[in-house]
Amino acid sequence: MAEVRLDSKDKKILNELQENCRQTIAEIAKKTKLPRDVVVYRIKKLEEEGVIRQHHTMLDHSKLGFPLYAYVLFSLYNIKPDEEVRFVNFLKGHRQIIYVAKNSGKYDFTIGVCAKDYKQFDDIIREIRQKFANAIKDIEALPTVEEFKYDWMVDLVNTKEEKWK
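RESULT FIELD:
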């Protein structure tokens, strides 16, 4: 996949979208000092190039009745590709698993689980263990106390000097 080159206009727009993806094109244009048509064109181009994958809302799981959020790491035996697809599809289809990633290293997968309490969390992990008993080698759970930074990609494309200009 070819790397997309971003100029200062793209970076300003991305910074604004990371700050608040719900702001209007007019607001972004005003803050970036770019014409409205330029902002529209560049956002559309960044979406077509796959730089902007989606616009999303970050929810506070505890305010929705799920105070327990934990990352769970899975180490698997050398499973066949079709079994891995079944495992991933199960995780993606589970209502209370809100994050699924394939890793490189000691752990093969990381998931994020939202639960009402530790009993419900244990039930979810037990269900996964039972369904994939022959595939799972090891599991480690990391309950999350507080998140300080989440999906803040704009820092990768902006240096501190560029960001504050």
